[in-house]
Amino acid sequence: MKDMMIGVDLAKNVFQAHGALLTGEVQFRKKLTRQHFTAFMAQQAPCLVIFEACGGAHYWAREMEALGHEVKLIAPQYVRPFVKRQKNDAADAEAIVIAARQPEMRFVEPKSVEQQSCAAVFRGRERLVHQRTADVNALRALLYEHGHVFPVGMRYLDRITALVDEETSGLPALIREECQDLLAQIAEKTARVTERTAKLKALASQSDRARRLQTMPGVGPMTAVAVEAFGPDMAQFKTGRDYAAWLGLVPRQHSSGGKERLGRMTKAGQADIRRLLIIGAMSRLGWLGRRTIAEGSWLSRMLARKPKMLAAIALANKMARQMWAMLTKNEDYRDPALAVAA
C-alpha cells in the first residue's frame, strides 16, 4: 500500500506540491514550474496523487497514472473547508491532502481522452445553439423597433425572412441590410449545429452503452452521449438514488430535530444530463406521449394530482434510477407495467 500522498494545486504555470504520509506527517512543500513538475513526479516512488477537479486536472491525472501513480480528484467545494486561515497555493495544496485523508470523502473519477473529446463536441454544439438564439433575439428586437412583432422561436424564422425580403415592408435600407446579415449568420450557425448533431448521433450509434440507453422512452442520442461524456462509471454509485442525487434530481433537505423538511430539487449535480432528462420527461408528458401512459400507473396518478413540470422532474428522477439499473445490469429498458403484467 502506498504510504505517501502528494496534493497538487494546479495552475497555468506554477504548481504547488504538498507531500505527506498517510498519517499526516509533512514530508515536503515545493513550488514547481509546469516544465519541472513532470520530471519531479517521475522521480517520486509510486504514491497517491490528489488534484482538485478543475481545468486540466483530467489531463494531469492521465499523465500521473502513466508514471505509475494512483490518482484521485476531489471537487473544490470539498477542499475549501480544510483551508487554514489565509488562502494561497501552499494552503490549498495542504488542504487537498487533508481532505483526501477523510475516510468518508467522495472523489471524482478521471475522464478518458474519448470522454473529453465527446464532451468537447457536445459543448461545441451547445455553444452554437446559444449563439444562434442570441442572433435570433437580436433580429426580433431590431424588427420590433420598426413596428414588426414576431413570437419567440426558430419556427417563425421563415416569416421573418419573408418580411425582410419584401420590398414593401417599410424597413429602411440599412435596417434591411442588417437583418439580412443576421439571417446569414443564423443560417451559418444552423448548418454547423446540424453538422455537430449528426456527429453526436454517429458517436451514440458506436457505443453499446449509448445504444442501450436509447431503448428507454424519452432518451435520445443527445442524452445518451451526455451520459457517456459527463457521467462516471455507474459502479461507483451504490443505488440508483445515489445517481439521481449526483444529478441534482432529489429534493433539497433542511431537516432538524427529527423533522423532515424537503424543498426544491438541489440542482447540485451534472447540469447537462439533468436538463436533457427533464426535457425527455416533458416529451413523454406531451399530448402525443400521454397516449402511451397506462391508466392507473404511477405516472398517470402523478399527473392527476401534481403540476406537469413537477411530474416531469419526478419522472426524470425515475429515469435516472432506471438508467443506473440498466447500465449496472447490462440490460435494455423494460417497461415496468409490462414487467409486472408478465
From TrEMBL:
Domain named Transposase IS116/IS110/IS902 C-terminal: residues: 210-285
The alphabetized list of GO BP terms reads: DNA transposition
In Swiss-Prot or TrEMBL terms, this protein is called Transposase
InterPro entries on file: Transp_IS110-like_N, Transpos_IS110, Transposase_20
Domain Transposase IS110-like N-terminal: where? Answer: 6-145
Tell me which species this is from. Antarctobacter heliothermus
- GO molecular function per UniProt: DNA binding; transposase activity
